[in-house]
Design a protein that fits this description.
- The chain is mainly beta.
- About 5% of the residues lie in helices and about 50% in strands.
- The protein has 3 helices and 24 strands.
- The strands form 2 sheets. The protein has an 18-stranded antiparallel β-barrel. It has a two-stranded antiparallel sheet with strand order 2-3.
- β21 and β22 form a beta hairpin.
- It is globular.
Length: about 475
């Protein structure tokens, strides 16, 4: 481990006697003393185009392209000047996966499944847009993906074609949308807003990771003494919040309202986040809950760190758990390369639960390590349960890069220890290899082995995925 923490002056001498870095060695790149001119446009790599770009790239409709924009038009009454562009793109993932199923009746699942996310983005200005998102081959639940099962609970082909709307929202800036209200440009109406169905992701998904119908406002670049930036966001959600705790008997028709206030403060050496959520459920599930997330992100002695504390408090007899999850993320670059090592410890005091979580997503530990993360594709879930109730553990791993980041590999050990004696312990080893192919394709191969205590079956599994982004 000495090579991982060595300073720049000793990196070269230790590189020859250490297996680290595992990845491509980069060394120290010095600034050139001679003048280096910019490359002309025709000498740059071709820009990967989107599935839909309208108007044509030659007419100013290219996404991240160069050239003149179309003329556009002035919108009556509100005074805004719009230059509409329509962009469409997709993320299609097809995976062959085989794994031990924790179900007592089904010992192993082997399947090939697909998830395709389609997006259509109508860009009106640099700040105003309308985004539509569809997932035509799945219904956002583990057992409801278009797939073929070779062995498992549902052998054979399963069709989940649909046209359900997964995302549809309009976002912009009040000052930009209604310039007629401030023709001089001096009023404090530069307030961002968003309304519609969209994802919420706070505290790296530990506090909430869900798609809801909502309206929200954000004030960025607010002035605060001693800080370089203050961002305050407020939101209200009236539909689709999923905060039923796994293993409880929450009613399927529960539909809590949600109120949130999120704050980010940038200081010289750190960023602080204070996030608060209240869910109000008038249904039979009694899913009322108060949620608080605190985090501090900074570098300490060249080591990247993030410290988080997330808490939930439910009502008596309700389905929202009471507890606090304390976690840390610690990582550092391996000298002489772009490789990183990381150690992410955590401890859960009680039964902390998220304010909201989509059905196919992992629990509050999903971003602690790859063994706690669900690939979010069919019935292949997290290798170690990402839900917490009086548990402690950590993930420790190493990520190596080759071929100018076109290929990377993660090796990880993770554990979860139930310290109150009501559950069981888990110890896992896992790996993940990703390879870029051309401009649109990524291949992923991963596998794992998990040892469980208290007479729980051990599990092993692997998966191969082809991802197309176009």
């Amino acid at each position: 481990m000495l090579a991982l923490t060595a300073g720049p002056s000793s990196a070269k001498s230790q590189a020859s006697s250490s297996i680290f870095p595992l990845g491509q060695r980069t060394g120290v790149v010095k600034l050139k003393e001679e003048y280096v001119p910019y490359k002309p446009v025709d000498a740059l790599p071709a820009r990967p185009s989107l599935m839909i770009e309208y108007p044509s790239p030659e007419s100013g409709g290219a996404f991240l392209g160069v050239g003149n924009l179309q003329k556009g038009f002035k919108v009556p009454l509100i005074g805004a000047f719009w230059q509409p562009r329509l962009w469409g793109y997709m993320i299609s993932r097809t995976a062959f996966q085989s794994f031990d199923n924790p179900s007592p009746t089904v010992k192993r699942e082997t399947e090939i499944a697909n998830r395709t996310d389609l997006y259509v983005n109508l860009q009106l200005t640099g700040t105003e847009k309308i985004l539509l998102g569809l997932r035509p081959f799945d219904n956002n639940k583990p057992g409801r993906f278009t797939k073929y099962t070779f062995s498992g609970a549902d052998d054979g082909f399963k069709n989940e074609l649909n046209v359900d709307i997964e995302s549809l929202f309009f976002e912009g800036d009040l000052g930009s949308l209604f310039p007629v209200l401030d023709e001089a440009g001096i009023k404090p109406i530069d307030l961002g807003f968003s309304i519609g169905r969209q994802g919420l992701f706070f505290q790296k998904g530990m506090l909430i990771n869900d798609t809801v119908d909502m309206i929200g406002f954000v004030r960025n670049n607010a002035v605060m003494k001693g800080a370089s930036n203050l961002r305050v966001s407020g939101m209200y959600s009236w539909n689709r919040l999923n905060n039923i705790v796994p293993g409880t008997t929450g009613a399927s028709d529960t539909d809590p309202e949600m109120f949130g206030l999120f704050t980010a403060i940038d200081y010289l050496n750190s960023t602080l986040n204070v996030d608060m959520i209240y869910a109000q459920d008038d249904g039979v599930a009694n899913a009322d809950g108060y949620y608080l997330g605190l985090s501090s992100i900074q570098r300490i002695g060249g080591i990247s760190t993030a410290f988080r504390m997330n808490s939930s408090l439910g009502t008596s007899g309700g389905t929202t758990g009471d507890g606090t999850l304390i976690s840390a993320e610690i990582s550092h670059i391996v000298p002489g390369s772009d490789d990183i090592w990381y150690v992410n410890p955590y401890v859960a005091l009680g039964n902390f639960t998220q304010a909201g979580r989509e059905a196919i997503l992992g629990g509050p530990l999903a971003n602690i390590g790859i063994l706690f993360a669900s690939p979010n594709l069919s019935t292949y879930g997290a290798e170690i349960s990402p839900f917490v109730n009086d548990v402690v553990g950590f993930s420790a791993g190493y990520q190596a890069f080759w071929d100018d980041h076109k290929r990377n590999m993660i090796l990880e050990f993770s554990n979860k220890i139930d310290y109150d004696g009501r559950g069981f312990d888990s110890y896992g080893l896992g790996f993940q290899v990703q390879q870029k192919i051309g401009q649109y394709v990524q291949l992923t191969f991963e596998g794992y082995a998990v040892k469980n205590t208290e007479n729980q079956d051990d599990t092993v599994g692997s998966r191969f995925e082809v991802q197309i982004v176009y």
